[in-house]
Amino acid sequence: KKPKTTPKDAIILLRENVSMLEKRETHLKVKYETEEKNARANVTKNKRAAVLSLKRMRMLREEMERLGGSRMSLEAQVMAIEGANVNLETMKAMKKGTEAMKGIHKDLDIDKVDQTMDDIRDQMDLANEVSEAISRPEMFGVDLDDDELNAELEELEQEELDKQLL
């Protein structure tokens, strides 16, 4: 059985091939430029040599185009593998997240949540009632009626007016 090629191994191999093709293209470009110089130099002196140089230039140009196409195919494959690998890692992370959420929610159900929320509301209502009861100003042991207090206040006001008049 052949061992599976990992995405990392495939990417490394593809990049090495891209590098090799780039070097080959560079080498062919140098040869092309040399043939171009020969063709220019022989255009008036030796037409046969100039034509041969032009033929070699054409072959070199076609080879460089093929290499460029091959390089683009390899680069596209590298990008596709990298994208697929990112997608795979994303899916793995999402799966772990889903498992974590399942672990968190395994002891929860909507009835328990509703019951807890009802309990919280009840306790909040109770806390508000206690707070309101504590904050009411009352005289301990003295039961005061607002109507009685208002009548007493009017009496005091009347006495003050009487004093002022006298």
TrEMBL record:
GO terms for cellular component: cytoplasmic side of plasma membrane; ESCRT III complex; multivesicular body. The keyword Transmembrane helix does not apply. Gene3D superfamilies: 6.10.250.1710, ESAT-6-like. InterPro entries: Snf7_fam (IPR005024). GO terms for biological process: late endosome to vacuole transport via multivesicular body sorting pathway; vesicle budding from membrane. It is found in: Endosome. Keywords: Endosome. Belongs to the SNF7 family. This is Vacuolar-sorting protein SNF7.
